[in-house]
Amino acid sequence: MDYRILGRTGIQVAPLALGTDNFLDPTPADESARILEMSLDAGINLIDTGDTYANGGGEKIIGETLKKTGKRDQVLIATKVDHGQRRPGFSVDDPAQFGPNDHGHTRLNIIRACENSLKRLQTDYIDLYQIHRPSPTIPWDEQLSALNTLVQQGKIRYIGSSTHPAWAVMNSIMVSELKGYARIVCEQPPYNLLDRRIENELLPMCEEHGVGVITWSPMAMGVLAGRYDDPENPPKDSRAVLRGGFYADRVTRRGIEIGIEFSKLAKNIGLTPAQLAVVWCKDQPGITAPLIGPRTIEQVPEFLDIINTELDEETRKACDELVPPGSAAANFHNTADWMKGTII
């Protein structure tokens, strides 16, 4: 396997990373553990989770599995501190117990959240600790000083951000340089053929300043994998139904139309639509690795088979014709009000 360097850290990561948002929600615990073990055995070495995934249950599954297998030191654990309106169904532990200072990226909450994540993960350190969504009312100085303290204490190794605009990541780099704080080494945005807007500013900025890019939703929540044929009647076991809200809003008629044409491209080159979606994302300029998030153990081999697959130029051009570079046919930044741009 050809490993890739994460930003300017020197750390080598596999060209695919394992996302665990499905762990316990809806994937059962035993199957989640098997998915993790199977991915590790195939050489995937970056596991991404977050403190709100299944109310902290995602971190617990990872911690228990790595303890059982003894593979903690072979794995890079990336987790997140939520930007947090702590609300029922999207909170950690018991949401009813959260007060006004129990959320957001204050020094108080970053340090407390890190301590809780360490306990759930059953580890002494987190390899990559990420600020999950921007906190525009909290200065970078406060956020970075807290993260820097955790780095100095040995509780986290590197810091990153998730779903931040290019200018915000750049601001964080400036503050880190001025104050001597630990510097963001990785940003984690949504990126797929249906929403390519990070190509306009974020990706060029990250390449210029040595910031790695781990992306989420390469299959566009299943739209590019052929999961949907009617936005008004999505499959009952799909995220659009199970989670609703902004998840459902990402499934559009135009996106489904593109997904149908995309499936034809995949068939022509002998890949499944899901495989083509991931390969397309994996080898786009500036991308370190996309997150794959298998829901079932049966889906894992489908992704592992294309770790080293590359697309021919003709297929890439055909994808560009479906959704031109820098544009979007669906809004996967719909939880980030800073992202602007017309949806085609």
Task: Write a short abstract of this structure.
This protein has helices spanning 29-41, 57-69, 107-121, 140-152, 166-179, 202-209, 239-242, 245-249, 253-268, 273-282, 300-304, 313-322, and strands at residues 4-5, 12-13, 17-19, 46-48, 76-82, 126-132, 156-162, 184-188, 212-215, 289-292. It has 344 residues and is of the alpha/beta class.
Describe this structure in words.
- This protein is of the alpha/beta class.
- 37% of the residues lie in helices and 13% in strands.
- The chain has one domain: TIM Barrel.
- The radius of gyration is 19 Å and the shape is globular.
Distance between the termini: 37 Å
**Binned strand content:** 5-15%
Please identify the structural class as seen in this structure. alpha/beta
Query: What's the SSE pattern?
Result: EEEHEHEHEHEHEHEHHHHEHH
Topology diagram in text:
Layout: E1 4-5, E2 12-13, E3 17-19, H1 29-41, E4 46-48, H2 57-69, E5 76-82, H3 107-121, E6 126-132, H4 140-152, E7 156-162, H5 166-179, E8 184-188, H6 202-209, E9 212-215, H7 239-242, H8 245-249, H9 253-268, H10 273-282, E10 289-292, H11 300-304, H12 313-322
Parallel strand pairs: 3-4, 3-10, 4-5, 5-6, 6-7, 7-8, 8-9, 9-10
Antiparallel strand pairs: 1-2
Helix pairs in contact: 1-2, 2-3, 3-4, 9-12
Salient structural properties:
344 residues, alpha/beta, 8-stranded parallel beta barrel, two-stranded antiparallel sheet, 12 helices
